[in-house]
Amino acid sequence: MGLRLSLFGIKRSIHLSRFARYRKAAIMLTVALLVIPLTVWLLLPAAVPDLAHGNVAGARALAADWAKGNVIVLVRHVERCDHSSAACLNGNDGITDRSRSVAVDVGAQFEQLGLNKADIYNSPMKRTVQTAGYMFNKVGVGEEWLINCKGTMLRNALAHKVAGRNLILVTHSECMSQLEKDLKLPASTLGYGASLFISAETPQAPRMLGFIEASDWRSVTTE
Hints:
Layout: E1 2-7, E2 10-15, H1 16-43, H2 56-68, E3 71-76, H3 100-113, E4 118-122, H4 126-136, H5 153-160, E5 166-171, H6 173-182, E6 195-199, E7 207-212
Parallel strand pairs: 3-5, 4-5
Antiparallel strand pairs: 1-2, 3-6, 6-7
Helix pairs in contact: 3-4
């Protein structure tokens, strides 16, 4: 199919079939540009859920698993002094003085969840020892696996989990990232005092419940 044009006595022929081919190619390219990113996005692992800010379903799932003693939670130590200009609590290898209240507040939230059937461990680093002391009034020693956790975090956590009892681990951001990696999830950027929860109801297939930042506990609701 062709189109003949004449302008100032100059005649030209335009073959419309060429434009039809270009149009089809343009449509296919557009579809590819839309489909490829969508496919990549669908194949990416889901982000770790935030259990605060009105995530009622997530908060209910946490409460239900906690009541059954199925939960493993990793709690990051509060603000470390050597990474801050704030006053130190006791030496620059521990936490800041102002972060004591953060630890106490987070501990109070765990009290509301219930600590009557919970085992608590902390890494031997001074900042986690201090955090555990203010958060739970309990300090353990010698738990090297909570600082040297590369490639072993999930396995060691499950090994320390007692059936019917929740497991609280005061640890470090690297170990929290390692747990996410072990579960084949993207790493989160969690702040000081944040908590990362998994359900070990089926130890052979533990699943991520989500996280709560230290400042967000009051926005957690099951209603």
